Amino acid sequence: VKSGRYGKFLACSAYPECKSTKPYDLGIPCPREGCEGKLTEKRSKRGRIFYGCTSYPKCDFATWDKPVAQECPSCKARFMVSKSSKAKGEYLKCLECGHQLTAPEEVEAAV
Asked: Does pTM top 0.85 for this prediction?
């Protein structure tokens, strides 16, 4: 696992002479219909971390919130995102239906 200007990636042990690289995915499948990619941590030009599909540019799914491999209990979406606020603290939110898990033990077990 190497760290580059735009995030982590997998590279050959002879890197940088060997240019064979692959994106470092989180193991969470992309939520878009028909997309075969997985979600990966990326870095914007300004250095802010976001999460996008490894099949970019065919699939343009991206989110600023960290995806967590926990199925939504209400709509059965494949993952939820970790969010935090001063009022609610740490919580998980489904991007599909908006369902939230706010119990601290549920959030810590998932993250």
From this structure: no
